[in-house]
Amino acid sequence: MECDKKYITIQQLEQHNKPGDLWVSINGKVYNVSDWSKYHPGGETPLLNLAGKDVTDAFTAYHPATAWQYLNKFFTGYRLKDYKVSEVSKDYRSLIHEFTKAGMFENKGHTAVFTLTSVAAMFGFVFYGVLCCNSLWVHLCSAMVLGMAWIQSAYIGHDSGHYIVMSGHGWNKLVQLITGNCLTGISIAWWKWTHNAHHIACNSLDCDPDLQHIPVFAVSSWLFNSVTSSFYGRKLEFDYMARILISYQHWTFYPIMCVARVNLYIQTFLLLFSKRKVQDRTLNIMGIIVFWTWFPLLVSWLPNWSHRVMFVLTSFAVTSIQHVQFCLNHFSANVYVGPPNGNDWFEKQTNGTLDISCSPWMDWFFGGLQFQLEHHLFPRLPRCHLRQVAPLVKDLCNKHNLPYKSLSFWEANELTIRTLKMAAMEARDVNNSGVSKNFLWEAVTIHG
């Protein structure tokens, strides 16, 4: 009976927002996930970012219908007083319901098979070019093809990380380890750790690790306040060296992207050999051992050091296309400070995300992530459906007067460089005067 139900206020829910005392609300019912957070497949960070809040939209976005049956064991007996659903959320949930009825989340298409086949063919070409030819030009082409193979492997690793490649959890994990750890040398555990936090706290300066690149890059002068990263648990120091580097970031952006892969290798080792709790640590270490066995052996087969250096640098430089793309999707979008709110999921994704417009034949090249907003809103949706749902997302944004930003690859690069240059000029103001002249403007616009 209604009179027997117990209620708490939103303010009371917000008090349960720390490790060991972590409550969330889903559809107005309050759940205690303090103990479960340690075993959560997506890691503890996403739950901590949304602790003490209503997380209905985020939960719906990330979990299939079968997950709802497991919620009852976490139910506190409380319901959220004055629980309301915004019109945006109603329309968003309606879209998810339509996609579910149409079987779009289960229908994975043939994209993964095509991409895996192309990756296998590219690796075959690379090994043939290195092992069977002595020509510098063949080795150069092989390095370029290896870079493209790494890009496509990363896309498959990304998709399998969202469990949208294979039907079973175990098969997806196998694909993750092969395409991530074994073929690219980048730990899928590290990727899932950072990527889940990025999705949940998209473009939060202190919660989203994909924007925390000080001392090399800063997309907003808010970062000049030495923001404390809730993700890394440390202060992002805006010191003298950071000021110098950021002052020229619009010039160094592309050169750094050419060797950005080195940082991913470093981050992989730092996580796997840290004291942090890492899911499948042993499997991840075994996977990167596979990579650091075949890749050095392949390079060593080249006839001399000039070929070897050229081969490594060229293969790394080609992958810069992908690193740049990831930056284009978010660097020039709106940013904010603080943890995300669970009840404005749709709005936060539209404000913090930029799509890249292209022809359908380029979908393979961009790995589906040119539809970045659609992917953020429906992370369980296989990439073969993203182009199909894009017009529906755009209509919903127009209906609720929310931004739907879609630019060409060239236009997105221009906007990203302008964003970096603006922050660089503000960093120089800090250098000259000690205080940025633009903090008031930032406080009003809170824009990247």
Automatic annotation (TrEMBL):
TM helices/strands, residue ranges: 111-130, 136-156, 214-233, 285-303
A GO MF label? oxidoreductase activity, acting on paired donors, with oxidation of a pair of donors resulting in the reduction of molecular oxygen to two molecules of water
UniProt cross-references to SUPFAM superfamilies, sorted A to Z: Cytochrome b5-like heme/steroid binding domain
Instruction: Name the Pfam families on file.
Output: Cyt-b5, FA_desaturase
**Which superkingdom?**
Eukaryota
Q: Which UniProt keywords apply?
A: Lipid metabolism, Membrane, Oxidoreductase, Transmembrane, Transmembrane helix
What is its subcellular localisation?
Membrane
**InterPro entries listed in its UniProt record:** Cyt_B5-like_heme/steroid-bd, Cyt_B5-like_heme/steroid_sf, FA_desaturase_dom, Fatty_acid_desaturase
- Family the entry assigns: Belongs to the fatty acid desaturase type 1 family.
Organism name: Gossypium schwendimanii
Q: Which residues form the Cytochrome b5 heme-binding domain?
A: 5-89
Which processes are annotated in GO (biological process)? lipid metabolic process
State any GO CC term: membrane
According to its UniProt record, where is this protein mainly located?
membrane
Q: Could you identify this protein by its name?
A: Cytochrome b5 heme-binding domain-containing protein
